[in-house]
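G., the chain you wanted modeled:
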Amino acid sequence: MTKNNKKAKITFAHINDTHSNFEPSSISLNLPQHVLNTETSVYASCGGFSRISSAVNELKSEAFLNQREFMFLHAGDCFQGTLYFSLYKGVANAVLLNAIGVEAMALGNHELDMGNNSVADFLDQTHFPLLSGNWDLSQEDQTKPNPLRDKANVFAYDNQTQTAKYITKDVHGEPIAIFGLAIENMAGIANPDPDTHFMNVTTVARNTVQHLNQQGINKIVVLSHLGYEHDIELAQEVDGIGAIIGGHTHTMQGDFTNIGYGKTDQYAHMVNNTCVVQAGCNALAVGHVTLEFAQDGKVEQAFGANQLLLGRQFTVDAGRTEHLENEEHDIVRDFLSKQDNIRFVVKDPIIENILNEHYRPAVRALQTEEIAVINEPLRHIRIPDSRGPSQIAPWVVESFVWKARKLGYDVDFGIHNAGGVRCSFNPGVITPADIAGKLLPFAIGIMIYSVKGKRIRQALEGAIDNAISNGVDGTGDGSFPYVADLRFTYRCCSVKGTRIETLEHLKDGEWIPVEDEKVYTSVSSGYTATGKEGYAPLLDYAKEPKPINVTMADAFEDFAKQKKSFDAPVNNNTIYFPCTGNEDVA
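Predicted structure as tokens:
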């Protein structure tokens, strides 16, 4: 096979998990003591799409000057995260990813939070392929408004060859094949349509490598949204992959102790002759890896770095209003300019113009409208601790119930997972931007569904078991349930199936027991209503989940406007007894 193959050199610039962070972020840099003869924290403007665009253009020029090919990749999860997504869904991402020059993207789980149709609409506007090589679209219902299967820019699973469809990058006559892999358990953490499903990652990768080798292609790159540890496992299990460029776990690979952050392996981590890289999250950094392939397809050399993309001004406050003295400012900039993991870049005026002309005005308007007042600190925590449960999640669930009833639905109560609430609130005014950009940044709709009382009991127990890994292989503490017009007691040490000791709902101002065989109507996010992370008993419904075309953020914003002010909830409806003692920590 190597007889006609040639050596190849290429630089890949890569980003992942950008989550609609088109604007820069303010980050704190903890400088070594020797820089200013004291331990100093300074704040800098970091990242954003305008800086990514400039950095990628610089990296492309550097690659060409060194006679290397170049390609710019996104390893998935561009959806969700900020007010830009809340307002514009996938449209702004499509326009801006096109503009910064992305050449291929992996399918992330958040792309599927709202089902396949959002992905289909996104792809109708993008100029690059979506690599999703283990996504089987062969049984997709073609009567849908916008089917995915036959779109030219979808490179999914090939049911006939049982391999991933792939693209090739020509490097001076030598092809490099690139295919994508997404999380197998997509149905467990997102909302793909039930007529499409995901194949085993390792099997598809192994089959595809073998298939490519039979085609005479021995230089192979995987664009992955599996997570860093799974990328390493894949490299160990499947031979013949030159590099895995990944996302999902927000891993900022490299040594960042020089600015007060941690260290995660060496960038361009080699595993079983496969180079594994990932570039953090939220558009703060760009990774760039140069691969030098031997004639036989093995990677002879892999080098590069993750670089934080900084502006040139430093302040002593997070609000970036109080600047350093001139002399100190120059010293800090001189130190940082010598660090391999820092790149100073100016903003690309083309990207700035797109943002200014089409998107920023509406975002800025929502950042200044005052809709309610927070009277005291409202803490959000997922699992109740010695200080109690979340003080903001119950208000969020109450907003779902209130909104559903306002729309005419006869709702008994509401349930929401703690991970769907993303921040605490300090006292002061809140704006729509605080709600849609911080508190409830996932643009997921709420749904009405009807189930028997015993299924509610089982779902609450299953969700808490999942959150604390109580006899199950949990997926994280975000599944812990918060409720409105419902209250329960969970005792961790009880026998499985009996851990929900009391379960009552509020009816005409009185608390009455939830009956196992009686059917109740509940409202939840689309994520919870479709049985994710321990909530599977809700899928045994008397009336299937029905979307009411309102997002979580929309419901809470409308609720906040009429409520006008918030205190901590008076009552605790989630009584939680942990396994480590008999004390009621609620």
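DSSP finds 15 helices and 34 strands in the chain.

Shout if anything looks off.
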